[in-house]
Amino acid sequence: MDTGPASAAARLLFEQEQIIRQRDNALLRSARDGRVGRQDLRRMVQADQLCLETETVAYAVLLARFPSGPAAGLFTGLNAALRSLKPSLDRCARALDSSPSSALDPSKDANAFAFPRAVSWMCLHAGPVEAALALRSDFAAYARESRELLRTLTDNDIEVPEAFRDHYSLPTPTELLDLAAAVVEDGVRKGESPDRATSVADMLLAGLDGFWLFAAGARRAPSAVAAGPRSRQG
Description:
The protein has 234 residues and is an all-alpha fold. The protein is 70% helix and 0% strand.
């Protein structure tokens, strides 16, 4: 059995891909039951604006911490990609008459802050392998679940503004996902331990669950979201 660095990185990436394929979320479940309306879409866009604001800063922090090598290319690319999405997301907000992200209240809308909390912790404390794996998992999961949401809304004849459909049907950023995988492989090859990377990825995906819970109208923060990576034991 191959237990070298290349095998360890490949196993790590494969395990995350399996997790992403099996994911579901609160808004998708509501959509399948025909219970998604414009207010849910407004909340989704509002929370997405908060996430975008947080992420652009977070990736700049990660770039400052890791200013060279494949990781620097990843964090630069992620920051640029998210900045390019802002006009499209702003059009969604206008089409839905969504409230600005500044109107969100952490004491009442805790789920909306679940992902920003997680990515803020990650940008300060995660290493390049941990951050790359977590971000690859998040981007892949978010893209897949957004496309599935659009398909479900269409199948249930739920009206969706064109601006919303255009924004959330954008293709998966495969080049960035490939670059994130390369960062994981490079780091593991150089001796970085992959053990904690799965915990950081779990934390970020739990934050994404909070995002979907807020969009679906849940008011309480999910207990799965913690201040840092949680143990996989137990």
